Structure formats: structure tokens, C-alpha cells
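Hey, can you fold this?
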Amino acid sequence: MALRGHLIKIARTRALTGGQPRRAQSVAVLGAPFSQGQKRRGVEHGPKVIRDAGLIERLSGLDYAVHDFGDLTFHYPELDEPYMNVKFPRTVGAATKKLSGAVSRAVGAGHTLVMLGGDHSLGIGSVAGHAQQCPDLCVIWVDAHADVNTPETSPSGNLHGQPVAFMLKELQDKVPDLPGFSWVKPFLSCRDLVYIGLRDVDPGEYHILKNLGIQYFTMRDIDRLGIQRVTEVALDHVLARKQRPIHLSFDIDAFDPSLAPATGTPVNGGLTYREGIYITEEVHNTGLLSVIDMVEVNPVVGSTRAAAQATASLAVDVIASSLGQTREGAHGVIDEIPSTKDHVDTEQLCL
């Protein structure tokens, strides 16, 4: 671990230019108002409420050229019967395929992409589209849930709990051919994935995590080690071998429900504000962030309008900090502090 820690420091140093993280000059924002990967309606309104919370203005204030590509529109088949207990497979398959193409085009055009969900089944399309342009990418999955159930292990059949299983090469023979998913070919190795924030893992997922040796950090690990150490080891895990694009897939339910109440599957004991923002600040500091997903903001399940607004505002903070907003404040560049003597001399000249 000491050697790998040394290597990650070298990688971070090389990712810096002039003391500041290297970053793309443009950010693309893409909405995916989709909810069929789970049972609760309302998450399709996530992109709108996140934009309404000031996302575009915040990113523009970070000196990016911001391109808002609007929201994708999705086709909903009249008949989409469950398959092996998996709900809405054709609908989710078609939606994730469409999202994959849109993400691939945005990344291929040179943008850093912000994908606004929608539920986390969209991760299949978002990461797959990113991988079309950057096949050597790595994934940091910040979530209360592992989302790595297979159709056979899933207790609910909801596809928002299964997206990672469709990506992993090591699970290729465990995922059946679902209608609507013929376009998906596994593209990610277990060693290219790390989880942060887990605290609600199903039995089948636990077996997969342990048997495949996937790197993950639960909330207990964060309590035990601290968020600084957890984030350092997580980045070390995915970047020590080489610099490569980062796909940050962030489920708002990674936060404690007291901070993010407007989400469909809240779990007590989640990330604090400071812990969540620290993760995104450190991802930004690598200079390697290429795509961020922000998913599972559901204004309909918030008990009050204020709860929905607080959750959406938190989502904006997460996205902005991943793209360079700091807790030191947003400041323009000042070459030097004006001299008091220069000021006095100027006044004397005026007299």
C-alpha cells in the first residue's frame, strides 16, 4: 500500500498544471428524466429541480463554457412484462441505450459531462457511453447501495439496483439476456471500480463484493478510518496503475436522509455534508474527472417543498465541488495586492 500511495501522489502531481487541477474548458449538462428502474414515480423530475436549484448559474460562475443539452425523451412501450422478476426490462434497456449514445457524443466532443437523473438504472447507459470514448476509464460509485444485484439475486426486480452487474466482465455469465439489453456488452473489470458510502447491501451483492474482491468502503469504514483516508485509498485503488478518466456516479441517497430527504430509498447513517463534499473535492483535485452522474433526487417523496429544495441544492453543491468549487470561496485571479504607497502617490499627483 505504501508503494501504491507513492504512485498515486505522482499521478496527482502530473495531473496538475500551474498548481491547479487540469480541467476541460466546457461542461455539458444532460438530463435523463427517467423513473422505470424503480417503483416510485417522481424521480423523473430530478433534472428539472436540480436545474431550478441554480446548477447552470453555479457552473457558469466557475468560468466554464456551459452547454445545457436539455433532457432526453424516452419511449415507453405499451407492453413491457416482467422477465425473470425484472421489471420493465424493455423500457429500461431502450432508455439506457439512448443515454449511452448521448453520453458518448458529449464526451467525444470534449466536454466534461454532468448527467442528471432519473434513477440509478441510468448508470448502465451513462458509464457504457463514456466507455465507448474512454475504454480505460475507472468508476467511483458513491451510494448507500451496491447496485450490483443480478436478475437472479435481486430481491425486488428493480433495475436501479442492478446497473453495475451489467457492466462487469466478471459477471458476464451471471446476467441473463434480458429483452431490451442486447446492446450491452460488459466492459468494466472489478479492479476498475470502487464504492464509497455503502450501508444497505443485499445478500447476493455481499457475496459478489467478497467473491470478486471488489474494493468498497462502508459507512463503518468511514467512521473507523475517516473520510480523508477512505478517499485516498479509493483513488489509489483506481489510479495507482495509471492516470485515466474518472466516472463519478453519485446517488444522492449516499447522504444521510437528514440532508437528502427527497430520495426514494433513504438509509439512516449516511454521509455528512462535509464527507460528501470532501470526496468530490478530491476527485476534482486529480484533474481526471470526465463524467459525473447525479441521480435519485425525487422531489415527490420529500415531505415538504423545503425538503425537496434542500435535496436539490445539495445535488448542486456536489456537482459544483466536483468541478472546482472550493470551500475557500470562488475567487478571481489577482496578480498582486495593490501597494498603499502607490495609492498615496496617486492622490498627491491629483492634488
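Oh, and this one too while you're at it.
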Amino acid sequence: MDFNVKRLAADAGTFLSRAVQFTEEKLGQAEKTELDAHLENLLVRAENTKQWTERIMKQTEVLLQPNPNVRLEEFVYEKLEKKAPTRMNNHELLGQSMIESGNEFGPGTAYGNALIKCGETEKQIGGAEREFIHSSAINFLTPFRNFLEGDFKTILKERKLLQVKRLDLDAAKTRLKKARMADARAAAEQELRMTQSEFDRQAEITRLLLEGVSSTHAHHLRCLNDFVEAQTTYYAQCYQYMVDLQKQLGSFPSSFSNNNQSSVSGGASISVPTIPVSASLPNPSGHGSSAASGGFNELRSSSGSRKARVLYDYDAASSSELSLLADEVITVSSVPGMDSDWLMGERGNQKGRVPITYLELLN
């Protein structure tokens, strides 16, 4: 019991001594032992590393999950050590809506088929995004978080201990200055040697930990390379998916593609590699190649009929028109008084007007 009382009294005395020293330093009434310049620089670098690591982590999390509510929910699940519920991302939700609407309109129609193809591509992009987020979380965010929650906390702990040892050292120096009696000076000198040794030892421990921040920078550089590689893969996948989709949509007629192109050409120039959809569509100013135009002109000037292959699906807009399916072969003929952009098409017992831009005359 007596030992515990003495121990508590000693701890209280030490705490009081540190408090007095700290207060007098703040008031300018006591000298303060300064750390060497190298150690100070290491401390500043470690603090900067901590602050910028936190900032980069935060902005990366915003990039990977822009929705703050979802980020908060994922944070709560992480703290509870539970798995967050799997949810579709925005690309997957859009793709699902497109596929469902395409099935509603009919996969056999041009619009319905195009919606389904777009939806499937959006879901592919959603899957690539999910892989990118997963890879970035493991190879980029986790190492950054481990530094903040592991190495830097250790540095912080040892730095605080160094501050305590420095206060003990300066308090011992103060007591030595105030000692008048020989016995008191001898005790003060002994205490100063002990506190100086403890301070030097703690300064060395802290220095070694702080110099380890260089290894942290090297590790984070490798993580940064992994993050850039994951981004490169993700964007390359997205680009390839869209190029493939663009090629598929090139087989569908698009009455508005030229309007879009004219509006873009009137604005600022954007250097983005694209494969124009309109490249595989009929020429709006004519009726395909000059040879094809000659064939249609010859057909209109005669009373005969020709076989023609259908280039694209076409949905009849009225009962006077004939719906078409890509690659089927029909019989076409010219009717006096009919618009030059149309011919009369026949498929078995079905008959109706068809646009010549959807046809290729056969020999």
C-alpha cells in the first residue's frame, strides 16, 4: 500500500513538473530545448504526408462513389465490420432500363433492338466500373488508410513521448539552475543526466520512424502506378465497348445523325477518336453510290421490276408502306407519280411503299 502511495505521489509530482515547465515556456519564463533541424524537417514532412494522404484519399473516394449518402452507408458498414449490400451502379441501372424498354418495344424492331444493344453495353461498362472501384480500393485506398491508421499513429505516439521527455529534460535543467546546496546540485545533475539520456534515446527512436516515411512514399508511388493502370484499363474497356456499340448501331438508319454532326461541326473542335455512325449509313444527299443511283433511275424509267436486298430493318409508318427486315430480298418496281425516294415493294402477297435508301438493287 505504501509503495502504491509513493508511486502515485511521484507520478503526480512528475506531472506537475511537466505542467509548470510547459506553462512557463508558453509565458516565456523558461528556456526550451529545440530539436535539431534534421529532426524538425522530418516531423514537418511526416505531417505533410499525413495531411495530403488524407486529402487524396477523400477525393479518390468521391471519385469512386460520388453519392455522399452511399459513401456514408459504406463507411458505417465498414466500421460495423459488415458487408455492404450489393447494388447496381448507375450504368447498370441505365442498361437495365434500356433492355426492358427494348423488349417492350420489340427486339425485332430497329429501335427496340438498338435499345437492347445499348443497354447491354451500359451494363458492360457498369461491370468494368465495378472492377475498377474494387481494384482501386484494394491497391490504392487500403495502403493509404493503413499508413494513416498504422504507421502514422505510431509516429504520433512516439512524437508525443518525445515531447514529454523534452519537458522532463528542461524541468531538470531548471531545477539544476535553482539548486544552491551541494547535495541538491548533485541530485539535480544526476537527474539531468538521466533525463538527457532518455530524451536522446526517444529522439533517436522518433528519428528512425520518421525516416521510414521515405519508404512510405516509395510504397505509395507503387500504389499510384497501380491506380493509374486500373484507370487506363477501365477507360480502355469503356472506349472499346462504345466503339463496338457504335459499329453495331451503324447498321441502323438514323435520320438525326446528320443534324447532330452539323451542330457539332459548328461548335468548338473536339479531338476525340470516334468511329462515325453515319459512315455506314446511306448518303442523305443521294441514294448511295452513283452506280446504285443509275440503277434506280433506270428502274424508274422502265415499267419492269428488279430484285433488291434490304440493307436495314424498316418499320412501316402507315398501311401504305411495307415493313422490311435486314438482308431479306424483295421485288421492287416503280409506280408512275410516286415520290422519287420511294419504290413499290412486294414480298409474297404483301405489297407497299419502301424507301430506296434501305435497298440495294441486285443484278
